[in-house]
Structure prediction request, 156 residues.
Amino acid sequence: MTNLVYLSKEKVREVEKELNELKTNGRKQMAERIAEARSHGDLSENAEYDAAKEEQGLLELKISKLEELLSRARVIDLSNMPKDQAHILSTLTVKNLNNAKTFKYTLVSPEEADLEKGKIAISSPVGQALMGVKVGQVVQAKVPAGLIKFEILNLE
Prediction:
């Protein structure tokens, strides 16, 4: 069975753009590099040719992985989601009760997670703890460093 991947519209567009770029310009540049390396003579002793062919294999692998991701992707429909409860693509303002710092997180699929941008995976310990919460609730997440308690300040 194929595992579905839930992505935002923006992420789907980003992956489609990258895939298109790799299939057009990436393949064209790779073909030029292989032709250039081939023109250098004996292929059995041509390290440049071998390296270009290996890069071509990696390019094709990346293309197939992106195609596979898109084939499993489903765009998240927020119209059916509850407004008062955290769900995928919710943005929460939380207060870490262990250190009194406030953070803003957006709950996303693992494929979109980027902690530097405040996007945390719903499959992570913190993401799992925040799923389904409401404003005012206090929840705790078990992380490698121990337990973190969060108070939910705002939900968008």
Notes: Residues 34 and 52 are 6 Å apart (CA to CA). The first helix runs from residue 9 to 38.
